[in-house]
Specification:
The protein contains 22 helices and no strands. With 462 residues, it is mainly alpha-helical. Helices cover 81% and strands 0% of the residues. It has a domain of 78 residues.
Length: 462
Amino acid sequence: MKNLTNLIGTGTALKDLLTSSPIFLVLIILYSIYSIFYAILYLNLESPSDLGTALGLISIFIGLISIYYALYMSRKSTKQLKEIQIDYWNTRGVDYSKQKKYDDALQSYEKAIDLDPSSSKLRINKANALSSKGQYKDAIETIRTAIMLEKPTSDRYPRALNTKGEVLFRQSKYHEAIATFEEAIKQNPQLVYPWINLGAVHYELEKYDKAIEAYDKAIKLDPKFVGAYYGKGRAHNSKKEYQEAIEALDNAIERFERTRLEKLDRFDIEMYALIWSEKGITLTNQKKNDDALDKAIHAYRTAIEFDPRYIVAWYNLGNIYSDKTEYDRAIEAYDRAIDINPRDVDVLSARGKVLHLKGEYNKALEAYDKIMEKLPSEDSAYFSALVNRGNALCGLEKFDEALKDFERAKKIDPFNTIVLDNMSLVLLALGRNEEAEAVREKASRLTRLVQNSNSYIDSSDP
């Protein structure tokens, strides 16, 4: 009877193993050892009946199976725990990358890789973080390891190639990137991302037809892929095919709003703002009438609504208001852009020009001074700020100071006719008429020289 109780107990233990914790598995092993020991002791010390002997042997057999199964389950539990840890660190890395906290992301990926050194997926993610941080050499080394870990026939292999192409693209190694993306497509023509990236490279090389062709391939594979419509819209915009561009961008907006507007992470917000901003650029380029500009303003405002720190949208919004001679609104937009990046030379320059147009010359001078503080004298933006500062000083009738600026500008570019014309006007204002006439004549000669060189026909032309 005691043996029967042991047999039933052992069977119950087997059932419990299915849901046991690692600690409980250890207890079951100890219980199984006790069961075997008891059965052996019973067989040796007593004179059992045939039934007792059979039950004792069965109890030993089940005890051995229990030990084996407990060890198996313990190993399986350890493996599952390891997988949970890998997934945890990888997920943390992805989240940190989306937040642009790349150092934290890299630490997370390293911990995941320590647990699973053979995972190409983890190394692909690490390479992306390194690339985003600008550590391209380390990114290439990491992705090469990922490629080596995969067979060319595996699903992960073309994905690794795609990531390598992205790193090369960020380094402006466009032809190497194209070859890598094409290899990824050859391995798996149904993968969308290599087609998207191939379109982006062709766009940078100003091969807009090829870019559109690549984006169309991506759209055919995944009609919901927002980035493909955005890229296609940009390419049509650069070709001055504005209607086609707006159609593509509207498709991007529609699909975005249909699938992702309710659950937006940081990347989604930036992408949505980018699409609206590109639509604003397209409408501005179209410039058929004020209605197009008003629609462009709406597009930029929408972009800013979703991403208030999107400096490009603020800058372009200021430019439109400037074109519409709504100078106060333009300055307001430029000020918001400067709040985001006080060192943005393009914004400072545009703001200075609007202040100049408003007749607020002292404020314009401050804007031009800030630009010149940030740039070396050989920079073209420095030269423009210097000339504009001279013009602002003329507005304040500070002709001596203005002349100094124009003379400095002349040293930088002795053949700039705008500088020479401005100098002649300042010299006239100072009563230095002969000098003014000499400078004006030099400007006229340079203008005629340029006109004659433009009309020159090369006799070697067939």
